[in-house]
């Protein structure tokens, strides 16, 4: 199934995406998608969902609008490590994003006033379905609710102010997450999925998920040894080669650019770039 979170007439909701419509889940059953996931009620939602609404009549929010954790993995594709001139890491490189740094599908992303070195990173997002603590890699996918697309857009100069990535990754509404969550029963093995990032229709990044240095199972094992992963937590798994900073000449996102992150069997996350309002 595909689940989307949305707003309509300033009211938030969520439901099942089918044939260009969202069948909404009544709020008196579950307040949001995260609560439904935590209850293990994805199958039940199919019987609860009513009142189909056209996708053109809503604004899609990030599938999990306010996750408890958004854990991002840097330097996790071999090609991207090489193009950035780094050594292959012995352990996953971790940083976090805050919820207000992300928008949903078809919302504008903002190039901030502070910098023009605004780069793109298409990624696969993993959404946790049930609490994971000290989980081994071979059991890790049992804890996954589903998958989505993620745009980890980055301000490269701010990223490099220190050895920590947080500053460059958390400008307000600079990244995106969506368009929806595809449940793990439809994607038993995400490894063969293909990810492509396009700018104004031009392919900039292309790679398979199984080219990750640290696969999804290994990431969940590593993270769950540090802290519990709770239902609705998000792991952004890293980006393939082809980012703008590594090109000659370098490519930075500008107002009017349209960024698309497509992962087969999931969909396309599309966002237009605007300048941050004065």
Short précis:
The chain has helices spanning 33-38, 42-48, 78-83, 156-159, 166-169, 216-226; strands spanning 2-8, 11-18, 21-24, 50-54, 59-60, 70-74, 93-96, 102-103, 109-111, 118-119, 122-128, 144-151, 154-155, 175-183, 194-199, 202-208, 234-236, 258-263, 267-275. With 278 residues, it is mainly beta.
Describe the protein's architecture and organization.
It is a single chain. Helices cover 14% and strands 36% of the residues. The protein is mainly beta and 278 residues long. Strands 1, 2, 3, 4, 5, 6, 7, 8, 11, 12, 14 and 17 form a twelve-stranded mixed sheet that branches. A five-stranded mixed sheet has the order 9-19-18-15-16, with no helix packed on it. Strand 18 (258-263) and strand 19 form a beta hairpin. It starts with a strand and ends with a strand.
């Amino acid at each position: 199934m595909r689940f989307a979170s949305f707003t309509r007439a300033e009211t938030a909701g969520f439901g099942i995406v089918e044939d260009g419509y969202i069948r909404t889940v009544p709020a008196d059953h579950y307040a949001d998608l995260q609560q439904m996931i935590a209850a293990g009620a994805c199958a039940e939602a199919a019987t609860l969902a009513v009142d189909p609404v056209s996708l053109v009549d809503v604004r899609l929010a990030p599938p999990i609008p306010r996750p408890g954790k958004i854990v991002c993995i840097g330097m996790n594709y071999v090609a991207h490590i090489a193009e950035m001139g780094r050594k292959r890491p012995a352990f996953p490189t971790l940083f976090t994003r805050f919820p207000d740094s992300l928008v949903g599908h078809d919302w504008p992303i903002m190039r901030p006033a502070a910098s023009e070195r605004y780069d793109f990173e298409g990624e696969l997002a993993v959404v946790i379905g049930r609490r994971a603590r000290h989980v081994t890699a071979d059991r890790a996918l049992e804890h996954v609710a589903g998958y989505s697309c993620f745009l980890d857009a980055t301000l490269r100069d701010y990223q490099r102010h220190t050895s920590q990535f947080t500053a460059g990754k958390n400008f307000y509404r600079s990244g995106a997450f969506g368009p929806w969550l595809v449940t793990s029963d439809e994607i038993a093995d995400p490894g063969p999925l293909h990810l492509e990032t396009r700018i104004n229709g031009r392919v900039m990044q292309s790679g398979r998920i199984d080219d990750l240095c640290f696969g999804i199972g290994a990431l969940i094992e590593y993270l769950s040894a540090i802290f519990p992963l709770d239902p609705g937590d998000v792991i952004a798994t890293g980006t393939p080669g082809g980012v703008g900073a590594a090109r000659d000449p370098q490519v930075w996102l500008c107002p009017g650019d349209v960024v698309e992150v497509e992962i087969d069997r999931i969909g396309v996350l599309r966002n237009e770039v605007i300048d941050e309002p004065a």
